[in-house]
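Quick illustration, no need to memorize.
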Amino acid sequence: MAIFPASRSRRRLFAVMVIFLLAGSLVFLWSPVILRQPQDLPRSFSGDSLVCAIAVDDQPLVRDGLVAGLNMELIRRCAREDRFVVRFVRPMPGDRISDSLRVGRYDLLVAQADSLQGFFSRVPAPGEGVVWALAPRHGSKADSLERWLTRYQMTPEYAEDIQRFNCLRTPRKALERGWQISRISPYDTLLRACARELQWDWRLLSALVFTESKFSSTAESRRGAFGLMQIVPENTEHRSHLLDPAQNLAYGTAHLRRMQRFFRSQGVEDRDELLHLVVAAYNAGEGRMIDCMTLAEQQGLDPSRWEDVRSVIPLMAEYADSIETVALGRFHGKETLAYVDSVFSIYSLYCTLLP
C-alpha cells in the first residue's frame, strides 16, 4: 500500500521537470528573436526634428522637371504621417554635400546618386537618378523610409501628386494645340488662397509667378532672388524659409498687398490701372515707379494711368539724371515693360484656357 503514494510523487516531480525543460527550451529558441527585435525592426523618424537638404534643381519647362518640388512634397507627407518635423535647406555654394551629410549637418539629403561620394544608406526617389540619402546616424531608418515611399507610391494620392507636378507649364503651347487643362501649377490651391487675400483673380497671380520662376521652388536669379516669387532673402535662415512654396508665396503676397496700399495712397483708384502699376513695381520697385509717375505728371500726363506712365519710361533712361524730381536716377525700364507685358499676356492665356 505504501508504494502508490511514492509513485505518484515521482510522477508529479517528473511532470514538473518536463514543464521546466519545455519552458527553458522555448526561452532558448525565442531568445535570439527577442534579442534581435530592437535592431531588426524598422525604425522611424517619429518625434525627430530633421534638416533635409535639397541638392537637386527643378527644371520647370521639362516634363517631369519639378523634381525638387515633388520630392519636398513627398517628404512633407511622410513627416505628417510619421509625426516628425522637417526643415528644408539648400546647400550653399561650395558645400561638399557628402561631407555635410557624413558629419550630420544634414539628416537627409535629396540628391543625384552619382553626386554622393562614399557609402550612405539611400532610398530611390522620384526623378532620374535621384535618391534620399541618410546621415550615418539615421542609416537604420532607411528601410522604414523606403517602405513608406513604396506604399505611398501605390496610392491614388501619389498619382495625383505626379499629375500636379507634371502639369502643363507652357500655356501658349496649350492654346496653340487646343489642349484642355484643369490646373495651372502644382501650387494652385496655395495661389487661390493668396489671391483671395489680394482680391486678385488667382490666374493673374499665377501668371506673375510663372513669369518670375516658371513655378520652380529652387529658382534663383543672378541678384540672389529666390523661389517661386523670387524673394531676396535677408540671410541664410530666411533663404531656407523661402524654399517652402507656402512661405515664399506668403512673403510675395504680403509685398504685393503692401504695394497696393501704397499706390492707392498715391491716388490710383482704378482697379486695372492699380494692377498694372503694382505688377510693374514688383519688378522695378515702387520707388522707380513713383519716379516714373512724377515724370508723367510733369509731362502733363495722368500719373495714375499705366499707359501714360509707360510712355515716359524710355525718357527715364535718357534724361533722368537732369531731372531734379527723379529721386533714384537713370532707369533702364525695358525689362520692366517686357515683364508687365509678359504677366498680362500669360494672364490672358490662362483666362482662355481656364475660363
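Confidence is low (pLDDT under 50) at residues 1-6, 26-41.
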